[in-house]
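seq:
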Amino acid sequence: MSFFKQVANTAPLDYISPPFPSLYWPFPVQGYQANYLYYARDVWRYTLTWTLIFYGAVHIVASGYAVAFVWALINALVLILSSFAIQGGL
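struct:
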């Protein structure tokens, strides 16, 4: 029985979920700093959180670009159309 329990639960006895920002820091600040997730709940939480962060960041950048482009297009159209009115003597 202990064999199956050991195979099913490979987490170390002193395992705690790592802090949020990352599982791996690529720059050697204090040596090798890799953390691992052993439980499905932790994997799901990290995956969902980082997906929402990247999804939100990409959409904010895309919407900012779209708003800036549309705003510039509307301003250009207003200038062009007002120049026709000025040239026509209105």
